[in-house]
């Protein structure tokens, strides 16, 4: 069973001319009342990756470690600068399934193999406050790295690591750093021990040797220039961002982190919309089949998400009702109804992410951004080509809105408003991709379409809520319970929908009059 620990830490090394780093007296760091020597622990860690180092390229680390107080398997996922989530699993001979699943979007079907072994002598000290509570753990790590695949290099170094205590204030790390810098220490130029080990034991460079490495040279910045210049450049930059989002969100979806499913679903929709909006730039005979697979994935992601949103809406409405309007076990029935509809959706989603169809889609997304099916218009002036595409989408929104406004309230108008919402969403995504090229006018259209999408989305949510309330009322009636409260909530949803329909014409006139595209 895996568990997660949020890790906030900083690593330090000696100055380029100062040799190995030495730990200064930390008792004078503000807030520190004592420094407790916890002794030396011998750690033996083997790091796993694909032969082409896909995890390292994404700043992910997977290791099997013995020694110390947290022996076991550790997967570290980057959160932000200096912050990682460390997901742990018990010791075993092979990579635990719970961890290999979390790197599947990166690894795909490649084998995870040992790449580096790190032997560390960790001299640990605890910084504590006046009450004896832990503020941070400081360690002096003397490391020996041995390359296990991709070379036979060996490297040795010493570094200092400062890890904030659980629920600690990151500002405290600034105070410790100030003291360390005064002692001549610098932030490590490597993001992790593994990154340094891979760099220092890389025997593919003929200038490197396999003997112990004492000094290091900071890597030069990558020379690649991806500044968009053509219409195709801008669209590909947008597509690349969405592809990266899907891959990066995969572990979060598997861990059921807040908003992760919604965010991945949005990325799939953005990418599919871009394929359709910019069909003059990318060959749709290639992108349409991929778009259908993105639609499939969005649908799978939406099963549990839509139920969650609907339940939250009904629960909030129920909480706002006066007690006199609550009759029967309404809350219990709503909870049971929601759980029954949601049962199995999460297991199903994980099965989808583990399936070959999903992995094939990821491969197709890689292909479309690395070897894009560009058409002649892709080399054109962004201000002309992209503007034309966005205007075409906006015209489709206009047609759908006019159709909806011409209909009387009822089922047909509900459907027309829903279709207008979908077209507004597509235009919003097209304008998002266009913003780097077109600037203010595109950004203004994004804002306008987001507002329209929100208004029409509230209307559609009301339609779905009323369908659910009819279902709940029927269940309650069949069980001999009062259906009164469901009727009250139904009337509330009708009023919300009517308010949206009343605001719709004015909102649209404001948007149409202010469109600068």
Q: Can you give keywords for this protein?
A:
single chain; 517 residues; alpha+beta; eight-stranded antiparallel barrel; 52% helix; 18% strand; globular
Q: Radius of gyration, Cα only, in angstroms? A: 28 Å
Instruction: Give the CA-CA distance, first to last residue.
Output: 54 Å
Q: Give helix % range.
A: 40-55%
Question: Count of DSSP helices?
Answer: 15
Described by the principal axes of the CA atoms, the overall outline is globular
Residue-averaged pLDDT, rounded? Answer: 91
Strand content: 15-25%
Low-confidence stretches are 205-223
| Secondary-structure element pattern, one letter each | EEHEEEHHEEEHEHHHHHHHHHHH
How many individual β-strands?
9
Q: Order of strands across the biggest sheet? A: 1-5-4-3-2-6-7-8
Largest sheet: 8 strands, antiparallel, barrel
Class by alpha and beta content: alpha+beta
Structural commentary:
With 517 residues, the chain is an alpha+beta fold. The chain contains 15 helices and nine strands. The chain has helices spanning 54-57, 97-100, 104-107, 171-182, 193-200, 231-254, 260-277, 284-319, 330-342, 345-354, 356-370, 382-405, 411-438, 440-478, 484-514; strands at residues 3-14, 34-49, 61-66, 72-80, 83-89, 113-128, 134-147, 154-164, 185-187. It has an eight-stranded antiparallel beta barrel with strand order 1-5-4-3-2-6-7-8. β3 and β4 (72-80) form a beta hairpin. The longest helix is centred in the C-terminal third of the chain and has 39 residues, at 440-478. The two termini are 54 Å apart. 32% of the residues are buried.
